[in-house]
Amino acid sequence: MKKKIVFLITAIAFLSPSNSYVQAQNSINLPTPDMQGGKPLMQVLKMRETNREFSQKELPLQVISDLLWAAYGVNRPETKGRTAPSAMNVQEIDIYVASPSGLYLYDPFKNYLKLIAPKDIREATGNQPFVKDAPLNLIFVADLSRAQKLGANKETDMALDCGFISQNVYLYCASSGLSTVARGWFDEKKLSHAMGLNSNQKIILTQTVGYPKQK
Q1: Residue 183 belongs to what H/E stretch?
Q2: Which domain holds residue 15?
């Protein structure tokens, strides 16, 4: 019962920047992703679009879990296979989540969000004005120490691998009625500093996700 109460408090407070309880946690256990729902693929492809207007409405933890699993979760636990391919199966891309309550790193194998910094860095994730108010900004970061295995094609392969993940996000958002936009317009130095990245980490792309803005 105690564990259930702790999880409930964390789930309710995840996107609340004023909640010190969440900020004190090292990680947030995500609910098991729902792999049964969603619209048929052809309908989703027809609906896929970019949208740059977002509501500030919070995303429930279940939606965040489903979103991240669709993006780059583990779909074959026995082989550690993922929902998006990567060159030579290097899996060099990591997904960071910037929310009002802090910056988190998605662990697809344990299905949790590890707290990296208890601060709101959404404004640093891009140069567009909507990034600071949208509920989530995903940041796709390549681990260059892993990517070294890719050799001379490293830069191309990292971009391709990131593109596969970003498209998964687009498809999930189309299926779930969410808005999203992939963004390459950001100050890499500023964002890297805000995230506390090291020299072996390179930001490839950012992507904003949220509910559509009501008109």
Answers
A1: strand 179-183
A2: 2-210
The string over 103-131, giving b where at least 16 C-beta atoms fall within 10 Å of a residue's C-beta and e elsewhere, is bbbbebeebbbbbbeeebbbbbbbeeebb
- Number of residues that this document lists for the chain: 215
Q: Is 108 helix (H, G, I), strand (E, B) or coil?
A: coil
Calculate the CA 89 to chain-centre distance.
Answer: 20
Q: What domain count does the chain have?
A: 1
Please write the tens of the pLDDT for every residue from 37-70.
899 999 999 999 999 999 999 999 999 999 999 9
Residue 91 near residue 83, CB atoms below 8 Å: no
Per residue, what are the HEC states of 69-106?
Answer: HHHHCEEECCCCEECCCCHHHCCCEEEEEEECCEEEEE
**For residue 215, is it within any domain?**
no
CATH number of residue 151's parent domain: 3.40.109.10
Residue 25 lies in a domain: yes
Within a domain: 18: yes
Residue 178 lies in a domain: yes
Tens digit of pLDDT for each residue in 101-119? 999 999 999 999 999 999 9
